[in-house]
Amino acid sequence: MGVVNITPDSFSDGGEWFEPDAGVRHGLDLLADGADLLDVGGESTRPGAARVDEDEELRRVLPVISRLAAHGAVVSVDTTRANVARRAVEAGARIVNDVSGGLADPRMVHVVAETGVAYVAMHWRGHADVMDARQDYADVVTDVRDELAARMDALVAAGADPGQVVLDPGLGFAKAGTLNWPLLTHLDALETLGRPVLVGASRKRFLGHLLAGTHGGPAGEPVPPLARDDATAAISALSAAAGAWGVRVHAARASADAVRVADAWTTAGADGEDADELGAPGTSSTTSARGGSSALADGKGSS
Hints:
By secondary structure, the protein is an alpha/beta fold. It has 12 helices and 8 strands. It has a 6-stranded parallel sheet, with helices on one face. α1 packs across α2 (about 55-70). The protein is globular and about 45 Å long.
């Protein structure tokens, strides 16, 4: 899932793709680099970010979504607002990626149920301006799993089909530093909920802190976001090998290659086949990280 930020203030590429023409070009470039899906967002969710009003969010995302959809792209809208989600689906989006899992706008669960689109429900405890103060966990893996299970229950109660839902542990959202690593190493805990898992680690703060003092920078100084893509690709490979359905990334090529490597690795381990014959672009993948995109293309969810 390639990230298309139509924002002036996103943490790693804010303003770079803000104009519709630039956003569309960037989306097409991501597809050329191996992205299966494009996630278009018009509101930054970086820590401390201020909210934009709904009309401005619509103004930013709708032209980009409609044009990318016209090019045949499978487009996701990254929004917490029910009306933006509905309008985006009308414009051609086939997936709604809601970082709040339906908590920010109670109407969202009804939009999901009524439209039947695939829906990414992320673990969330508050908007960007407050989330860093809400990272108190008894056990981060258990708590995130249980809170996502509650979101699943709310969606089903509103009439959504469980088959529409993809779950996201919400790396970096109300989870600073080392809290993120247990979630990555225990993706199987989320998989017990019976739904595909999306991993969004790309360029996030915990990677910057992990790499602090490397890349020629000062000791203890986190590396900047654009220097985190190699680490992101490593997480893409490990997530795919662990059974994740997808990875959400800013730079697609390295992560697409990493997922192909994981696919060949896991398939050869399972079947004893020659890895050289596996993982060719365009073939059916045995790891859910690449294999699920076609199931989402009709907007009916995945399993």
